[in-house]
Design brief:
By secondary structure, the chain is an all-alpha fold. 76% of the residues lie in helices and 1% in strands. The chain contains 17 helices and two strands. The longest helix has 34 residues.
Amino acid sequence: MQIKDIELANISRYRSELMGMAMLFVVLFHVGLPREDLFFGLRRMGNIGVDMFLFLSGIGLWFSWTKNPDTRSFYLHRMVRIYPTWLVIALLFYVPDYLCPDLVMHHGHSTNIIDLIGDISINWDFWLHDELTFWYIPATMMLYLVTPAYMQLIIKHPIYRWSPVVMVMWCILVALVTPINHLVGHLEIFWSRVPIYFIGINIGAAVKRKDTMDGASIWMIIIIFVMALASSIFLEQVKHGQFPLFLERMLYIPLTITTILLLNRVFRCTPVWFNKTCAWVGGLSLETYLLHHQFVLIYVERLEWNYWFTFLTTISIVLPLAWVFQKCMNAVVKPIERKLK
């Protein structure tokens, strides 16, 4: 029996569904679990949801750029899509944290008014002190800043598609070369995610061309997936805290790509209602990311329920909140977006 070819265009076709799965992985990762629990290592694998977001974002931006290669338009679209939503959440989080620390469960982030303004505007404590509350947003905006230049570079000089190899080398230097580590080592969580984002941009061309892979390559994909997943689970379950995190996050690169390719096979077989549900969650991924941990999960965890009930309760609360929040923001942002166009 001949195995059907792997269609890279399915990465684009199922992009929303994949984003939905990535968001669920991130929430599963954030739900607390004792180190002694046998599920601890697998639960930590929810961390690859971030890598999936970055990989899919890179592909999507390649589509966007090749359709309209205008730097000003690129920045405006990204700014309007992310920044107003971020600004509202930052105000809701950092202002009460600064003014009434005794009334909220989180405190101590903004130490003075200048710090408060910096945190609200660009979350600068992430860059200064590795404050991880909403780290994905400033990290993404930083990547967006260099994306147009990178895409122009690889279009003009395709050899620079190998740049992610340099980025992996940089991760090694950051982790192991002492002067570099002292200077920027606190941003390891950012550096170790940079390669997968630019790999996504690189693969974007093949996805857009609707290239295919020989069906027999599914066995290689499964082997890589199993090796990366099993080794990562072992590292988390047995050696958590005993190794530089970048080592495991380099395993996340093949794990992310193979997970996406395998999920595409799954989405071809799953019911329409399941795919639509995942796509709906994917459409709320930005709002869900910003709301789920600091505004829902930390309060649900105080009830000390078991892992899965905590997860399901958090999801059942945050998704309606994210939907309402998105509708409200769209009412404000969409008219601005139309005027910019």
